[in-house]
Design goal:
The model has no long low-confidence stretch (mean pLDDT about 95). It is built from 14 helices and 16 strands. The relative contact order is 0.13. The strands form four sheets. It has a seven-stranded parallel beta sheet with strand order 10-9-11-8-7-12-13, sandwiched between helices. The radius of gyration is 24 Å and the shape is globular. About 40% of the residues lie in helices and about 20% in strands. The protein has about 425 residues and is of the alpha/beta class. Helix 14 (about 360-365) links the parallel strand 12 (about 350-355) and strand 13 (about 370-375).
C-alpha cells in the first residue's frame, strides 16, 4: 500500500466508524449484550481455527528471532481464548451505564440539572503483541456503545484478522453495524500516523505497548490520548507495620509476575522497622534470584543475607521500571520522606503503604499523586478485572476523566441535561 492509498484507506475506516458510532450510541443494552454473548460463543466454537491462524504468527515471530517470552505473549491458547470469552460474558452481565443520569438537582429558577453518561464516540486503539487485546478492546467498545478502530502489531496480524472477523460476525448476528469494530488490515506504519491525526473521525486514541510507541503517539497525535508511559510503582513499609504481612505483600508485589506495569519496582522502608524487615524480605528475594539495587543503609542491613545479590543504587534506579527480577530498595525516615520520594520519582501509576497507623494510611491516600493508591495490599491488584470493571482497555496515568484502569466508564463522557417546565431566564 503506498502512502496515498494508506491515507485513503484510513480515511474510509474513520468515516465508517463515525457513521457506526451514531448507531451504537442508541443501541439498546439487550442488543449490545447479545453481541457480546455471540462473540463469547464464536470464540469457543472457533478455537481450533484461531490456533491455525495464530500458528502462522508464532512461526513468523520465531523465524524473525523474537525472544521466547515475547513469542509467549502472542499465543492464543485454548485457555487464553476461553478467558476472552468469559470476559465477554462478564461484560454482558454487567449493568449498562449508557444513558444513566446522575446528580439531578433542582435549581432556584425551577430547572433541574444533572449529567447523563454517553459514549465517547470513536476511539482508536494502537497496541503491540498480545492479540487477545483485540477482543478486550472490541468487547469494551460494544458494551460502552462506541465504535473503534484497532491497530494491532504486525507480529500478530493473522491472529488479529481472524479475531476481528469473529467480532464483526457477532455484531451482525445482533443487528449492529459491522463497522462498529474495524481492524486496520495493513501493517504499514503510516496507518498509525494517519489514525492519530483524524480528529474529524476519531475522538480519542489509546496506545498500549512499549514506552517508544506511547511517546511517539503522544508527540504526534492530533486527537486526545489516554496513556501511561511506564509503571514505576512503589511499596512503602511503614513504622509501625505488621512485619509478617509486609513481607508477604512486598514479595507478591515484586515477584508474582515481573513483566506487568503494576509490579513494584521500588521498595521504601521506614528506618524504625528496617533492621527487622529488610533481612526477612532480603532472604525471600535472594531465594527467588531478585537483584537488589540498594542505598548504603539498606546494604548494611542486607549484607548478612545468604545469596543476596546487592548492587549499589544509582540516581537512575529510583526512576527505573525494570520489568525484571530487580528492585530498588531505600531506607527512609518515615511517611513524610516516603511520600516525597514517591511523588518525585514514581510514574504516578500505583503506590502502596503497608502500615498499622491509620493516620499514616490516610495521609498516604490523600497525598500520593498516583492513579491508584493502596493500603496494606499488593500493587499487582491495579487491574481493571481485579477492580471489578469487567475488563480494562489500558491504564491511564493522565489526570483527565480516565485515570487508573480504564473500563466502561473510562470510555464514556458526561453531558449536562436540563429539565424544565417552561422556565425562562429573567
Amino acid at each position: 500500500m503506498n502512502a496515498l492509498n494508506v491515507a485513503e484507506y484510513t480515511h474510509t475506516l474513520g468515516s465508517q466508524a463515525k457513521a457506526a458510532s451514531a448507531l451504537m450510541a442508541r443501541a439498546p443494552a439487550a442488543v449490545k449484550n447479545k453481541a457480546l454473548r455471540s462473540l463469547a460463543r464464536l470464540l469457543r466454537e472457533h478455537t481450533a481455527a484461531l490456533q491455525v491462524d495464530n500458528a502462522r504468527d508464532l512461526e513468523r515471530a520465531r523465524a524473525a528471532g523474537l525472544a521466547e517470552p515475547l513469542v509467549d505473549r502472542l499465543k492464543l491458547t485454548p485457555k487464553v481464548l476461553d478467558t476472552c470469552a468469559e470476559g465477554c460474558e462478564q461484560l454482558a452481565a454487567m449493568a449498562d451505564v449508557i444513558g444513566e443520569i446522575i446528580g439531578m438537582k433542582q435549581q432556584p429558577s425551577g430547572i433541574r440539572v444533572g449529567q447523563m453518561r454517553v459514549p465517547i464516540g470513536v476511539f482508536g486503539m494502537i497496541y503491540e503483541s498480545r492479540p487477545n487485546v483485540t477482543i478486550e478492546a472490541a468487547s469494551l467498545s460494544i458494551k460502552s456503545g462506541n465504535a473503534c478502530i484497532l491497530r494491532g502489531g504486525s507480529e500478530a496480524i493473522d491472529s488479529n484478522k481472524a479475531l476481528a472477523r469473529l467480532v464483526q460476525l457477532a455484531l451482525a448476528e445482533a443487528g449492529l453495524p459491522q463497522d462498529a469494530v474495524q481492524l486496520v488490515q495493513t501493517t504499514d506504519r503510516e496507518a498509525v500516523g494517519q489514525l492519530i491525526a483524524m480528529p474529524q473521525f476519531v475522538d480519542v486514541i489509546i496506545p498500549r505497548g512499549g514506552k517508544g510507541l506511547i511517546e511517539r503517539i503522544s508527540r504526534d497525535a492530533k486527537v486526545p490520548v489516554i496513556k501511561h508511559l511506564d509503571g514505576n510503582c512503589h511499596t512503602y513499609v511503614d513504622d509501625p507495620c505488621d512485619v509478617a504481612m509486609a513481607v508477604k505483600v512486598a514479595d507478591n508485589a515484586k515477584t508474582q509476575k515481573y513483566s506487568p506495569c503494576n509490579a513494584s519496582e521500588g521498595l521504601l522502608v521506614a528506618r524504625g522497622v528496617a533492621p527487622e524487615f529488610l533481612p526477612l524480605i532480603g532472604a525471600v528475594y535472594a531465594a527467588k534470584g531478585v537483584e537488589m539495587r540498594v542505598c548504603p543503609e539498606s546494604r548494611t542491613l542486607l549484607a548478612s543475607v545468604a545469596g543476596a545479590r546487592l548492587v549499589d543504587a544509582t540516581e537512575q534506579d529510583w526512576s527505573e521500571e525494570y520489568l525484571a527480577p530487580i528492585i530498588s530498595i531505600k531506607v527512609v525516615e518515615g511517611v513524610d520522606e516516603a511520600i516525597a520520594h514517591i511523588n518525585h520519582y514514581s510514574s504516578h501509576h500505583t503506590d502502596a503503604i503497608l502500615t498499622t497507623n491509620h493516620v499514616h494510611a490516610q495521609r498516604f491516600l490523600r497525598e500520593v499523586d498516583s492513579a491508584s493508591v493502596m493500603v496494606n495490599t499488593s500493587t499487582r491488584f491495579a487491574d481493571g478485572f481485579e477492580f471489578g470493571l469487567g475488563a480494562e482497555i489500558g491504564i491511564s496515568t493522565d489526570k483527565f476523566h480516565a485515570r487508573g484502569p480504564v473500563g466502561i466508564e473510562g470510555l464514556t463522557s458526561l453531558k449536562y441535561v436540563v429539565l424544565g417546565e417552561g422556565e425562562v431566564r429573567g
